[in-house]
Amino acid sequence: MNDVLEATSPATNLSGPVTCVTKVELRVSCKALLDRDTLNKSDPCVLLMVQTNGQWMELDRTEVIKSNLHPVFAKVFSLDYYFEEVQKLRFEVYDIHGTHSIGTRDDDFLGGVECTLGQKRMVKPLLLKYGKYAGKSTITVHAEEISGNNGYVELSFRAKKLDDKDLFSKSDPFLEIYRINDDETEQLVHRTEVIKNNLNPVWEPFKVSLISLCSCDEDRKLKCLVWDYDSRGKHDFIGEFYATFREMQAISSGNKVSWDCVNPKYKQKKRNYKNSGVVILTDIKLHKVYSFLDYIMGGCQIHFTVAIDFTASNGDPRNSCSLHYINPYQPNEYLKALIAVGEICQDYDSDKRFSALGFGARIPPNYEVRLNLSLVEAYQNCLPKIQLYGPTNVSPIINRIANALFFLQRYHILLILTDGVVTDMADTREAIVRASYQPLSIIIVGVGNADFTDMQILDGDDGVLRSPKGEPVLRDIVQFVPFRDFKTASPAALAKCVLAEVPKQVVEYYSHKAISPFCPITDLPTPILSPSVSTFYEKLKL
């Protein structure tokens, strides 16, 4: 049976249960690893694997720690946690022999373990192939939930006049920060880079969540250690000091924040001993992190626009083979996609009024090609009044919506329903790059059985979408889904897939603009406080 790592999400109740995604941070350490090296000890690294469609795929990896059989890794694994889903994880430990890909035949496998998210701390023996124990080797995994309201802090440290621990050169210092837990155990929060041959090092700024740094307790003790790096793993201790996050924040008032770096042995033996150097906090930046629900409950509304493909390739709507054929007994694929997505989006727009656009149609009496079908009363009513034509140009739709976005308190979702690959791909890529700077998400649903391979280019999941001139998108705003993959699935399954990335995209936009939620929950209009606030997460199972 797989072991379980727990990261319990706090309950949120807005006239009904809300199931939502939360971020989890995993920290890893090992003990008594097998020694596979002849002259030195093993150089371990841990790979985090996730199971997708029955296959184990690498999600991330730790740093390599030289010559250490009891490593405490500074790398923090971050992943989304879904309470209602079984998320299988696998940790694999390797002794690294080169700089090439980890896990090759040149590296030694030191053991692995499988688990699922379910408990806060797991200590398990490492297993080799065929279930054989890897000696007394164990791996410890700590899981901590990072909620949207905790935020994170960016810290910058330097030191001066550190003790010189080397004979022919100067010390190679690095700094470690440990959080002291309620049970007096110590949890590594961060390990800086090594500054070579320098007694007055300036370490790179680093970011850490407040829950990781101090469990959001400003007075929690932090133990800070300064070491002289040794490539064989036998680092020389320079000194230590204790701090709190409250002390660190004094720098915001213009006060100097520094600590004596003390070696307790020297302090006990040397009468005139003062310190082994001074560590100085040079800068601190606090960053508030908001969640999707923070913005929704803060007054942000989602406005929904649908653009429908009326090109001739759909077939004559009067013919039962047409993708636009109106069957009196069941909706066609266009209607199914429209209903599935619109049903959820309507709960985030107080006036419940959607904009409807069309492209590729000719409008009587002159049958000139028109882009805007205005606000049509209903999709079925417009079909007899138009002639399907072409081409499948999408960029005018995107540009039209992006150029009309004026209200920061309203985020837009553009749903494009089309039966084929767009004919203005270069212009569409350019339009998407421009739109990535606006409060807009674009969902493209491919209807019918066409080859949509080229449409995957617009979805940035496999890489960064760029304009024809090479400019990258500011953020990934496009999600493409072939409707045929959901023909036998429920409307909720389609909605979950096409809307899954919207919460992240909303947060990314407002975070980039440094915009906080607009108003407290007590000031929200009645439609936002209705039970439907939770609909997005309930239906998507996020």
Automatic annotation (TrEMBL):
Alphabetically ordered keywords of this record: Repeat
One Pfam assignment: Copine
InterPro entries: C2_dom (IPR000008), C2_domain_sf (IPR035892), C2B_Copine (IPR037768), Copine (IPR045052), Copine_C (IPR010734), VWF_A (IPR002035), vWFA_dom_sf (IPR036465)
Domain C2: 4-130, 133-260
GO biological process, one term: cellular response to calcium ion
Keyword tRNA-binding among UniProt keywords: no
Gene Ontology cellular component list: plasma membrane
GO molecular function: calcium-dependent phospholipid binding
Homology family: Belongs to the copine family.
PANTHER family documented for this protein: COPINE, COPINE-7
Name of the protein in question: C2 domain-containing protein
